[in-house]
Amino acid sequence: VIIAFFIGMIHHYVSSCCRERVSESQVLIQSRVLRENGKYIPKQSFLTQKYYFNNPEDGFFQKKKTKRKVVPPSLVTDPTMLTGMMKGNVTTNVLPMILIGGWINMTFSGFVTSKVPFPLTLCFQPVLQQGIEFLALHASSVSSAPRYFLNGFGLPSIYSLILDTNKAFKTEWEALELMDHQWALDDVKEELMAKDLHFEGMFKEVLQTSISYNILTIFQYLFIYSAFISFENEKLPTYSKVKRILQ
């Protein structure tokens, strides 16, 4: 069941990789971000974006609802539609189902995966127990490959509940409609002014560090100058004097 479910999800997202679906998912993300972080923007900006999504006349969610109610073309107006539907059905549904069903039958051959909740006659045993050569097994038991094909008939209703964009738009519209703006940065100026940021201590520490560094630099220059003075009477080149100072 898990394998069939995730394969169907992958098939759905691969087949719907177009700009319209991507833009729809991005708009849903923007609406969720607006609900979560709308308290950090001014009220007028929040209401403007909310009006863009939830306007009852020409809001984004309302336009998507009306746009999807389109009458599909009929065979009278488009004779090639039937051929295109057959090709699309074979390449996107039938062929992947056969390949994955063969892989499941080869990998999980001989496994009893489930049991039908009602009694069956023995004539169903060859159909539901493919790959199991055990005649004493109850006829209501189902092996791996028949269970996969049964999932192919039952999972589309679950996909319609999870992947229906119209329901996602409706849910997001209701959540955003109930959202009320509460300005989270209303008293941020007073809170910032009331805090003790310890600028005096910070400046004092920086000043002490700067003075210590300057004093250390002065002592280094004095040491180098005194070393040159002590080597002045020696008849050595300047390179040798510097080398002895560094040593």
UniProtKB/TrEMBL annotation:
This is ER membrane protein complex subunit 3. GO terms for biological process: protein folding in endoplasmic reticulum. It comes from Cebus imitator. It is a multi-pass membrane protein. It is found in: Endoplasmic reticulum membrane. InterPro entries: EMC3, EMC3/TMCO1. Keywords: Endoplasmic reticulum, Membrane, Transmembrane, Transmembrane helix. Belongs to the EMC3 family. The chain crosses the membrane at residues 94-112, 211-231. Its main location: endoplasmic reticulum.
